[in-house]
UniProtKB/TrEMBL annotation:
<protein>
    <submittedName>
        <fullName>Putative sulfurylase small subunit (Molybdopterin cytosine dinucleotide biosynthesis)</fullName>
    </submittedName>
</protein>
<dbReference type="InterPro" id="IPR003777">
    <property type="entry name" value="XdhC_CoxI"/>
</dbReference>
<dbReference type="Pfam" id="PF02625">
    <property type="entry name" value="XdhC_CoxI"/>
</dbReference>
<dbReference type="InterPro" id="IPR052698">
    <property type="entry name" value="MoCofactor_Util/Proc"/>
</dbReference>
<feature type="domain" description="XdhC- CoxI">
    <location>
        <begin position="14"/>
        <end position="81"/>
    </location>
</feature>
Length: 106
């Protein structure tokens, strides 16, 4: 696998450049979640990102939360799904549920 598109390798490269970085990881899915458990999205403090945790369904919301995690250093678990009122706002209309853990990379 090329490290060029590997979110974990990109996170390390960005960190070594001095950027503050957060990593979002899919930790649980149910139903028709578009990305499997273990999928990653890496985000820097300016909102630049690489990877995917939902194929575009919830990336905007995850990036926003990741920037907050970078700022306060507190990891959090995000949940999205069709039974959740945020599902329609963020576009997870494909069904299912997804749980994403977001942490700052030191």
């Amino acid at each position: 696998m090329s490290t060029e598109n590997d979110p974990l390798a990109i996170a390390e490269a960005w960190r070594l450049e001095g950027r503050e970085v957060a990593l979002a990881t899919v930790v649980e899915t149910w139903g028709s979640a578009p990305r499997p458990v273990g999928s990653h999205l890496v985000i820097d403090g300016d909102g630049n990102f690489e990877g995917s945790v939902s194929g575009g369904c919830v990336e905007g919301a995850v990036i926003s939360e990741a920037i907050d995690v970078i700022g306060d250093g507190r990891p959090r678990t995000l949940e999205f799904g069709v039974a959740d009122e945020t599902a329609w706002r963020v576009g997870l209309s494909c069904g299912g549920r997804i749980k994403i853990f977001v942490e700052k990379i030191q």
